[in-house]
Design brief:
By secondary structure, this protein is α/β, with parallel strands linked by helices. The chain has a single domain (17-264), classed as Rossmann fold (3-Layer(aba) Sandwich). It has 9 helices and 10 strands. It has a 6-stranded mixed sheet with strand order 6-7-8-3-9-10, with helices on both faces. A 4-stranded antiparallel sheet has the order 2-1-4-5, with helices on one face. A hairpin with a 2-residue loop joins strand 4 and strand 5 (80-81). The chain is globular, with a radius of gyration of 19 Å. The N and C termini lie far apart (50 Å).
């Protein structure tokens, strides 16, 4: 079943630290995008990263997913050292992500966009990519069935055969999540999933994220919609100007004077 995280792989026990980072640093020229960030993310939770614009949130996701390599610091995922590992190998180990700017194959169907996500999970002899045999046909059938299941989960099964370009903005965000889930991640990183969504679409997104957590998938979410964050997150990391500001439960974050000051731009 596609929604079983890390199918065929050993998974950490609930509550065990799945992802950890120590002393992460990343600069672009003279701009320190991430300064000495450390964190520990237990398996099976929703971990949100928040902060004002320019706080370094998306850079953190890029470091975690392998888009960027850190200037210094360490990262481990399920005990595996991630520093120096490429993004596509991290996907094979169980990390997946979506992007703030939607990156779909617009001229492919909705279903085919999800099927693309199975590229790390094919078990086909090389020659059958040229001469389609029984193994190729069986794998193709499996991928289509599991992709349809994922589209049902995100509420897009009825749109499976239309071009991705024809989807509404909110539907495109859900399709990106379905495609990321096709890789069977243990940890799913989602960057600004509620951006541009109306209240009904945000409610639908909340339901889907809750569903993923219930299936044991760990979520790391960068988000500006504080109502969504406070309703869904188990832990929240607050960043400001690339630096650690505070980490805690949502209620503690809401009450912390430094967090209030960072968002309101005033001393409290």
């Amino acid at each position: 079943m596609t929604l079983d995280p890390g199918a065929g792989q050993s998974s950490p026990s609930p509550g065990e630290i799945l992802f950890s980072a120590q002393g992460l640093q990343k600069s672009f020229g003279g701009v320190h995008a991430v300064r000495d960030i450390s964190l520990r993310i237990p398996r099976g939770i929703v971990f949100s990263i928040i902060g004002p614009n320019g706080a370094g949130k998306s850079t953190m996701l890029n470091l975690m997913s392998g888009v960027y390599q850190p200037d210094s610091g360490t990262m481990k995922f399920a005990g595996i050292d991630l520093v120096g590992m490429s993004a596509h190998w991290r996907v094979r180990h169980g990390l997946a992500r979506t992007f703030q700017k939607i990156r779909l194959f617009k001229q492919m169907s909705v279903l085919d966009n999800v099927i693309v996500g199975f590229h790390t999970r094919h078990e086909i002899p090389v020659l059958q990519y040229l001469f389609h045999g029984k193994t190729f046909q069986s794998d193709r059938k499996r991928c289509r069935a599991e992709a349809t299941e994922l589209l049902t989960f995100v509420g897009l099964a009825h749109r499976a055969d239309v071009l991705a370009a024809s989807l509404a903005y909110g539907e495109q965000r859900l399709l990106e999540i379905a495609r990321a889930l096709a890789t069977a991640p243990k940890l799913l990183m989602i960057d600004e999933p509620a951006a541009g969504l109306n209240p009904a679409e945000v409610d639908a997104l909340l339901t889907r994220i809750n569903g993923l957590r219930a299936r044991g998938i760990t979520i790391v979410m960068v988000e500006h919609n504080m109502e969504l964050v406070m309703n869904i997150a188990d832990r929240v990391l607050v960043m400001d100007h690339g630096e650690y500001l505070f980490e805690g439960k949502p209620a503690d974050v809401q009450a912390h004077p430094d967090v209030i000051a960072a968002y309101l731009g005033t001393n409290v």
